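During the second half of the funding period, the structural biology subgroup turned its attention to how the target accommodates small molecules. The most pressing case was coproporphyrinogen III, which had performed well in the primary screen but for which no bound structure existed. We therefore specified the complex as follows and requested a full 3D prediction, including the ligand pose.
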Amino acid sequence: MTELKNDLFLRACLREDVERTPVWMMRQAGRYLPEYRATREKAGGFLNLCRSPELCSEVTLQPIDILDADAAILFSDILVVPEAMGMDLSFGAGEGPKFSDPVTCRADVEKIPVLDDPSRELGYVMDAVSTIRRDLNGRVPLIGFTGSPWTLATYMVEGGGSKNFSKVKAMAFNEPETMHMLLEKLADSVAAYLNGQIANGAQAVQIFDTWGGILSTSAYNEFSLQYMQRIIDQLTREHEGRKVPVILYSKGGMGWLETMADTGCDVLGLDWSIDIDVAKARVGDRVALQGNMDPTMLYANPKRIRAEVKDILARFGHGNGHVFNLGHGITPDVPKDHAIEFFRAVREESVQYHQ
Ligand code: CP3
C-alpha cells in the first residue's frame, strides 16, 4: 500500500496532533464545479456516472486538484443501496430522486432482501473505491459513506424527497414492527456495504443521517440512533494497520450529541445550528468534531467567508480533534472561487491554533 502523503484528516479524526486543521466539504464533487458537469455530461447522467468506476474516480479527484481538499469522498449516492435491493430509482433533470415503487406495507418490507455481499449488486461501488484509491496514489485519505437506515427508509417509503414525511412517520407510529423490520434489514445491509468499502480501500466512513432531526428525541432513539449503533457495532475498525474513523452526522440532531457520542463513533458531524465551542464543551475529548460553517455563507464575498472561518476556528480554539467542513452539502449555485477561498482560509488561518 502506498504511504499517505497527507494524513491530517485521519489524525484529526483520532484527535492526534496536526500542523493545521484539515478541511473537506460535503458534496465537494458536485454541480458547482464546471468540471463535474462536464464529466456528468460525458457519462450521460448522474446514475450512469455513479455506475462508472473510472468516471467516479475522475469526479472524486476534481476537488482534490481544484480545492486542495484534505480528504476525498467516494462519489456515489446513498440511494444506490435501496436500488440494489430492487427498487426503481431515477433522477429527473433538476429534480430530486424518485422511486416509482415505494414501500407501503409489511408485505413490501418482507420482500426486501438483506444485502450481505456488497461485491454482487453493489460491485460497481466496490470497484469505484479501489479505482479511486489507485488514482489518489496516497495524496489524501478516502472517505466511504452510507445513508443511515432511517434516512434511507424516508426515501423508500415516501418515494422521494418530502416536506412533512407523512407516509414514513405514519408507518413508524402505526406499524412500528414493520418499520423495525425495514430498519433492521437496512442496518445489516449497510454494515456489510461499509465493510466492503473499507476492505476495498475506504480509510474512514461517514453515516449520513440527513433526516434524523425530523424526529422527537424518543423517536430518534428508537428509529434512527439504535440502527446507527447496530451498524457501528458491526464495522471493521482497523484496516491496513490504521484505525478507520467513523463519522456520525445527524442533521438537526444537535440536541443529542451526548447520546450520539455514546455509540462509539470517533467523530460527530455538526450542522450549523450549534456553536462549535458549545458542542466541544458538551462532548469534551470523547470524540472529534467535524463542521460546521453554514453552507449558504459561501454565497457571501470571499472576505466575509474568511471572517466566518476565523470565527469558527477561534471558537474551537487550541487543541486537537477538529475537521473543518460545512454544516451540510455545498449548493449547486455557489461560485467556484468562493469554495476555493473557503479552503484557502482554513489552511491559512488554522496554523496558529496548532503551535
Ligand atoms: O459529498 C460528495 O461529494 C460525495 C457524493 C455524494 C452525493 N450524494 C452525490 C450527489 C454524497 C455523499 C451524497 C449523499 C446523499 N444523497 C445524501 C446525504 C447527504 C445530504 O446531502 O444530506 C442524500 C440525502 C442523498 C440523496 C440525494 N441525491 C438527493 C436528495 C439528491 C438531489 C438533491 C440535489 O442536490 O439535486 C441527490 C443527487 C446527487 N447526489 C447529486 C450529487 C452530486 C446531484 C446530481 C446531479 O449531478 O444532478
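Two results from this model are relevant to the next phase. DSSP finds 15 helices and eleven strands in the chain. The longest strand covers residues 142-147.
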